[in-house]
Amino acid sequence: MKVKPTSSKSTVYNKKTYYFCSESCKQKFVAKPTNYVKNK
User: Which Pfam families match (predicted)?
Assistant: First the structure.
C-alpha cells in the first residue's frame, strides 16, 4: 500500500521514518516493529 509522506501518521524507527494509512496501523507497528521491518 502506498501512503503519502504528508500523512500525519508517522513514526521513526532506526533513524527511518515510516508512514501509515491509519492510527491503528501505526500503533501496531510501534508495538512490534520487528514484525514489519526486515533486518539488512
Answer: YHS (PF04945)
